[in-house]
Amino acid sequence: MPPAFDWLIVGAGFAGSVLAERLAAERGDSVLLIDRRPHVGGNAYDRLDAAGVLIHQYGPHIFHTNSEQIFDYLSRFTRWRPYEHRVLAKVDGMLVPIPINLDTVNKLYGLNLTSEQLEGWLAARAEPVDEIRTSEDVVVSKVGRELYEKFFCGYTRKQWGVDPSQLDKSVTARVPTRTNQDDRYFGDAFQAMPAEGFTRMFERMLDHPNITKRLGVDYADLKDEGLARRIIFTGLVDEYFGYRFGKLPYRSLRFDHRTLDQEQFQPVAVVNYPMSEDYTRITEYKHLTGQKHPKTSITYEYPQAEGDPYYPVPRPENAELYKRYEALAMSTPDVWFVGRLATYRYYNMDQVVGQALATFRRIEQAVPRTGAGEAALAPAAS
């Protein structure tokens, strides 16, 4: 008998779900979508907790993008709630805006600088770096060592388990420094939250007769069953190849979810703790969702070495190890590797959607359409 499905997609997060929807809706292909977890949505999964407050199970997920194409695509499956993310950091006993801006410096140091004066103030403290290679280099070359110590050094050590001097420059390069009073965490053209939550958006995306979902299922238990002609794999690339060259390092997170008998806990959705505490941040979800509720739910976030993989660790030796797995992946026929874990890159949600849509375009070029799904039309084996 021919395979029951045209595609087996491993992982029901953004990468797998977008590709499942495109293959089913655009090509008429049959898709079996599986995930180890008992739900769709990957790390963006949200749910009502015991108090009835909508929380993000795996920490805060804030959608932002500069791509109109990506925003329009996701808009097929959700209405949006306009939301601009703001973050405060507890530094020297004060809550100040992060990324660092004019108000941050003026409040911390009791100054009244203008934007132009701040440029000179920062330039006087910046330490020239011949070649910017590490996360420490990025920050000290822009704002100097004192602000680096206050905002970045401790936070980065907690988040990654290593000193910023040992991490690739990409980690802190993501966080801008502003000389105006713009206190938004992101500057993207499109910033919004799914009006009914991420999970509802995924459910709509996957509501197609050509998509079969099997949740709480491990790929290892299905891989020898010959269920599909082709595979899209969004899990750990090193796991797929049996850790042939050793494990790729990841950072994990532990979440302490709490419900409080009060309407509001903190002034913004996220407060970072770069100088104190063993957690990195506290999230209060009602700021993100706009939900009205007499109680509020918050999450303390603790980075750790063991547990579910969340962040590829950006160090040169890890990049070299990934290249060996990447070569294997590229030489494996009829398997597409997509997403953060499968390509060992730290992507934002919109970047994963963009990668999935680009992968679909490559599939369109490489795999002829049948119009109603290959497996359904394939002749019986002789």
From TrEMBL:
InterPro entries: UDP-GALP_mutase, UDP-GalPyranose_mutase_C. It holds the Pfam family NAD_binding_8. GO terms for cellular component: cytosol. GO terms for molecular function: flavin adenine dinucleotide binding; UDP-galactopyranose mutase activity. The keyword Flavoprotein applies. Its cofactor is FAD. Belongs to the UDP-galactopyranose/dTDP-fucopyranose mutase family. NCBIfam families: UDP-GALP_mutase (TIGR00031). This is UDP-galactopyranose mutase. It comes from Alsobacter soli. The gene is glf.
